[in-house]
Amino acid sequence: MPLPPECYPFLGMCISSKIDLGLFVTLALFLTGLLINSYVERKKKRQARKSFIKALAEEIKLNVRSLERAANGIPTSFEINQFMALNKRNRPFLTFSYFSVIYNSRTEVLQDLPDVMIKNIVEFYGKLADLAIDVSAVDKESFTRISQQGREEVMFDIVSDIRVVLQLGLAISDSIELQLLPDRIF
Questions:
Q1: Which residue would you say has higher pLDDT here, 183 or 64?
Q2: How far apart, in whole angstroms, are the C-alpha atoms of residue 105 and residue 118?
Q3: Contact 23/30 with Cβ under 8 angstroms?
Q4: What is the pLDDT of residue 11?
Q5: How far is 186 from 176, CA to CA, in rounded Å?
Q6: Residue 78 and residue 84: Cα distance in Å, rounded?
Q7: Backbone phi, then psi, for 183, in 5-degree steps?
Q8: How do the residues of the chain divide into helix, strand and coil, expressed in percent and rounded to 5?
Q9: In 3D, which of 80, 124, 72 has the Cα closest to residue 98?
Q10: Run of H or E including 13
Q11: How far does Cα 75 stand from its chain's mean position?
């Protein structure tokens, strides 16, 4: 069947005028540009999220190293208890601080990680905060006013919490490294 004289064939369609053809081509180029821009923008955002996850992994490693130093520098429970028993004012010298600048800056990026890992990361930073509070409490005057058994329990809790949080941090660090492999998320 022949095409009418006012018809311009384009991709198997009949376009009635050159103006319609120009509009169609312009619209197609505009949509192609939108798709390309969208792809480029998604790729930039994906790279930014991946960079944040890498920075978070480094911050967790930094905290793990701090926990390792703390765990290796603490005397045995027996030695701590003997020292505290000598005098009510005796208390072990503990220092502990942690880093959470990256974690606190963009927590919305955590949604790119599996739910279990998000839970573990939040738990890790929560336990770090609790541990820092407990360690700072040892320096308070109120620590000298509790019983010897109470002081021993506080110290036992701090030492065991350091080890638990350290293990959690090591596990999270390994999990994030696996997630950052090229064939995984992002």
A1: 64
A2: 15
A3: no
A4: 67
A5: 13
A6: 10
A7: -90, 10
A8: 75, 5, 25
A9: 124
A10: strand 13-15
A11: 32
Which of 179, 166, 184 lies closest to 53, judged by CA?
Answer: 179
Task: Report residue 44 as tokens.
Answer: 């930039």
**How far from the centroid of its chain's Cα atoms is residue 155's Cα?**
29
Count other Cβ atoms within 10 Å, centred on residue 15.
18
CB 50: neighbour CB atoms within 10 A? 16
Q: CB of 96 within 8 A of CB of 66?
A: yes
Rounded distance between C-alpha atoms, residue 57 and residue 103, angstroms: 10
- Locate 12 and state its tokens: 């198997």
Q: Are 43 and 170 in contact (CB under 8 A)?
A: no
Point out which residues pair with 10 in neighbouring strands. 13
Of the candidates 168, 160, 172, the residue with the CA atom closest to the CA atom of residue 71: 160
Q: What is the mean pLDDT of the chain?
A: 85
- What digits encode the pLDDT tens for the residues 95-139? 788 898 988 887 788 887 889 999 999 999 999 999 999 888 888
Residues listed for the chain = 186
Report the alpha-carbon distance of residue 15 to residue 110 in Å, rounded.
50
Res 150 pLDDT > 80: yes
Would the pTM of this model clear 0.70, i.e. be above it? yes
Of 60, 66, 148, whose CA–CA distance to 100 is shortest? Answer: 60
